[in-house]
Amino acid sequence: MKERYLVLEDGSVYRGKAFGSDEFKIGELVFNTSMTGYQEILTDNSYCGQIVMMTYPLIGNYGINRDDYESIVPAVFGFVVKDYCDAPSNWRSQETLDSFLKRENIPGIYGVDTRAITRKLRDHGVMKATFANPGDDIDAIVKSLKEADDLHDQVSRVASGKIFPIPNRGKKVVLMDFGAKLGIVRELSKRGCDLVVVPYDTPASKILSYHPDGVMLTNGPGNPEDVPEAIETLKELMPKTVVFGICLGHQLISLASGAKTYKLKFGHRGGNHPVVDLSTGQVEITSQNHGYAVDIDSLKDTRLEMTYQALNDKSCEGVRHKDYPCFSVQFHPEASAGPEDSRDLFDEFIALMDKEGKHA
Fold it and tell me: Sorted alphabetically, which keywords does the UniProt record give (predicted)?
């Protein structure tokens, strides 16, 4: 395999071996602590604009299969691993990770010290990065990294551009798509929900015209403040229907209610994050992928109450509205990949729609 370099904006250069695509992009380098689930991670649209590094050392050992996709078109900008396995052994495997990355135009590197890079990001925060080939002008690449602007259009890159149904015979749910993981669709479909998927910038009047029992706000990439139109839409929706938000949807509900968000130093990405349910004291292990969080202090001036809190850094992991049938979580109850401790939140969504429907 040919040589390839990972270049960070602080001037660090890590030499490794190339796999995947030969077309490089500048992205935000982040790390994920999951031990499995690299296919779901690579196809999670919340990684749009980012280069993902796995902290678990061996990646590729169970290949790629047809079923474990979280989106049809991956949006990740690159992949970094310690040891790459090019001979997967799993009865579901249909191709190697390398062939998948080549087909989806995702560049990768292996054979680098991911432990050292992770420690750097933990100490200094996430930073821009890209790949380079031997002979490339590293100084010029570092200069371009330092001068690169942050992306602000990730949601529009990955969200659906049109309205379409996923029919069933249960509760009518409008799914606001900010870059939805298919796991969310699967969980709602399992519960018989009759879905109408709409783009993230769909106005409240259009959403309400479907007479939904509830509205689901999906995950998505980037800064929640980059989608102000959705914040305004939510201000209209929350008093009128049941609303459940996940990840970016959680942040948008908080912003629409008057709270604030901030960027985390290195984010929460992995399938092993403990959170505590503040109403019961029960601890759940969750799947997470976000770089922003809701400011707990800012909740004091809103009608929101915090429902879940991260045990690692005490950040906000969930809120509930005191006046409206609206709640959200920062973590992923659909997992994909990761633990299934929190899937009953979808049942809570169904129960809340039942309750509000009886009141109506």
Answer: Ligase
Of 48, 247, 316, 326, which one is the catalytic site residue?
247
Compute, in degrees rounded to 10, the torsion defined by CA atoms 224, 226, 229, 232.
Answer: 40
* Number of Cα atoms under 13 Å in the Cβ half of residue 332: 31
User: Is 334 a residue of the active site?
Assistant: yes
Confidence band, pLDDT 50/70/90 cuts, at residue 150: very high
Identify the active-site residue in 187, 284, 317, 334. Answer: 334
Strands (DSSP E) found in 258-325? 261-277, 283-294, 304-310, 316-321
User: Which CATH code for domain 154-359?
Assistant: 3.40.50.880
Ranges of each domain in the chain: 3-147, 154-359
CATH class of the region 3-147:
alpha beta
332 given a catalytic annotation? yes
Would you mind telling me the total number of residues written for the chain in this entry?
360
26-74: pLDDT as tens digits: 999 999 999 999 999 999 999 999 999 999 999 999 999 999 999 999 9
| 111/3 Cα distance (integer angstroms) | 10
Q: What is the DSSP letter of 341?
A: T
